[in-house]
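2.7 Reproducibility. Because tokenized structures are sensitive to small changes in the input, we list the exact sequence used for Sec-independent protein translocase protein TatA, including any N-terminal residues retained from the expression construct. No trimming or masking was applied before prediction.
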Amino acid sequence: MPNIGPAELLVVLLVALVVFGPRKLPELGKSLGNGLREFRRSTQGLRDDLNITAPAPTAPVAPAASVSAAPAAQPAAAHAVTATPGTDRVAPDSSAHRA
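Resulting structure tokens (single pass, no recycling of outputs):
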């Protein structure tokens, strides 16, 4: 979304003044403000209704009997994979390039 700076805002206000005239512009500003205020009240009321009707999330209940959490012994060398540099390359097939 583009940022509206002071220069852009001034241009928009001048265009509105030319289009609507100096007598109609205060009325339009007032009605726009009232409309925005009513919209905010409606959205806030909707949010309040949703917060009231939605049940509050509950935390999961921990089991009453706690199981001793002994760490399982993991063999470190059983699953270790070591790679040497350059061994994972495959030599190109020279017969594929012949016509």
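Helices lie at 6-53.
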